[in-house]
């Protein structure tokens, strides 16, 4: 496993790999790795000759009051984890290497579709977040070059925004969205789960329980609006704040009023000070 910190060096090394006919899979992460990340690495290993994982806590996607400073950075553990997972390259640039002239002005493609996708759900409460994500992913993809890109379904909106972004920019990148990996009891794995106290961890379980309960009810064609309100009330008994809880069209991320073939239920909740997101997809 090669650890590379310099963007140009990585660009060069991957260009050479491709010249030798090797296919490249890319898994962008912010580190503090867990089985969810590992599932993306496994998929990339299966489908490509070379797998590269980036670890970069991107400051441009955090708001001023968010948890950039306290975001976990267990670097040595992460590197051991990736070595064991047989990753070929780890890209771990500094903030200065990624943004040499200060923080780049985030991308805002007014004519593209992704800004519309970025408006609701998390985008409503994290202004500028998806512009920061789109900017860093574009930079990362320019560094890695042509690759298959592995993303987790856990970040529903992020996957939708990035999938649209690579289409809008006419790239040849193939996006692969992999299923959410959960703890045995249902809690979606997240780097932020480590912040939960024992009591918060127990209360956080309500999120997946209620999402899966709602999925069953929606499949029985009960009223979308009534079920949504009931689920929110139920969730409020366990979590400290429901930031949003929406039943949306998974393609457009616009809330649905009536049943349709494909729906997604997405939520963001605070348990203590920790913000957790989760979602389920429903195919009627
Ligand atoms: P992060 O390090 O949180 O930025 O996540 C890096 C990638 O891992 C993103 O594509 C996430 O969607 C994905 N990911 C995070 N948690 C999970 C999970 N529990 N299951 C599957 N993928 C995940």
pLDDT < 50 stretches: none
Order of helices and strands: EHEHEHEHHHHEHEHHEEE
- Tell me the strand percentage band: 15-25%
Largest sheet: 6 strands, parallel
Shape: globular
**CATH first level of the largest domain: which class?**
Alpha Beta
3D structure, described in words:
- Helix 3 links the parallel strand 3 and strand 4.
- The protein is an alpha/beta fold and 284 residues long.
- Helices cover 40% and strands 20% of the residues.
- The chain has two domains: 177 residues, HUPs (Rossmann fold, 3-Layer(aba) Sandwich); 87 residues, Pantoate--beta-alanine Ligase, Chain: A,domain 2, CATH 3.30.1300.10.
- The protein is globular and about 55 Å long.
- Helix 9 packs antiparallel against helix 10.
- The strands form two sheets. A six-stranded parallel beta sheet has the order 1-4-3-2-5-6, with helices on both faces.
- Bound molecules: adenosine monophosphate.
- The site of adenosine monophosphate (AMP) has 17 residues, from helix 2 and strand 5.
